[in-house]
Amino acid sequence: MRDRPLTIISGGQTGADRAALDVARALGLPYGGAVPKGRAAEDGPIPDRYGNLVETKTADPAERTRRNVLQSDATLLVTHGEPRGGSALTRDVARAEGRPFLHVDLRRTSAPDAQRLIRAWLQATPCRVLNVAGPRASEDPDIYRATFALLHAVLGDADA
């Protein structure tokens, strides 16, 4: 069991990022993360209800991605298939910087197996700040629901 709650960070984009923030809010976990200048997301400015997000100096999403990888202790990437676009960049930055990183492909891993995998990884990885990333909703309309359910199951467990 953790002595302090895990802090969840993400870039605030629709899809996996937003699901991570919503799980943190639902479970009362601390949350935050870097977001592009202007709080830009594909659905417009990131809503004010996500008050703990910090804007980067530019609107370039790559700046946000890099900052969240570097400011976290570990990064969890959730996808349905191979990472593309910003998800691939997240993976590449984590690898290049030697940061702890786990990619869960929900096309290849069942939800129960993914939950077990993430729990084991979090127990083995010193992590107080977890960056959660994945595709935006326009790239994967099912990723929000899948990421929310997965993270809620894992993080809602007091021993996670």
Protein architecture, described:
The chain has a single domain (7-16, 29-75, 86-155), classed as Rossmann fold (3-Layer(aba) Sandwich). The strands form 2 sheets. A 6-stranded parallel β-sheet has the order 5-2-1-8-6-7, with helices on both faces. A two-stranded antiparallel ribbon has the order 3-4. The chain has helices at 16-27, 61-71, 85-96, 111-124, 143-155, and strands at 7-9, 31-35, 40-41, 44-45, 53-55, 74-79, 101-105, 129-133. It has 5 helices and 8 strands, in the order βαββββαβαβαβα. Helix 1 (16-27) links the parallel strand 1 and strand 2. The longest helix is centred in the last third of the chain and has 14 residues, at 111-124. The chain is an alpha/beta fold. The mean pLDDT is 95. Helix 1 (16-27) packs parallel to helix 5 and helix 4 packs across helix 5 (143-155).
CATH topology: Rossmann fold
Which segments are poorly predicted (pLDDT under 50) over 5 or more consecutive residues?
none
Envelope shape: globular
Given this structure, which CATH class is correct?
Alpha Beta
Quick check: average pLDDT? 95
User: Helices and strands: which structural class?
Assistant: alpha/beta
The number of distinct β-strands equals: 8
Q: What is the makeup of the main sheet? A: 6 strands, parallel
Question: What's the SSE pattern?
Answer: EHEEEEHEHEHEH
Distance N terminus to C terminus? 7 Å
Percentage of residues assigned to helices:
25-40%
CATH architectural grouping:
3-Layer(aba) Sandwich
**CA-atom Rg in angstroms:** 14 Å
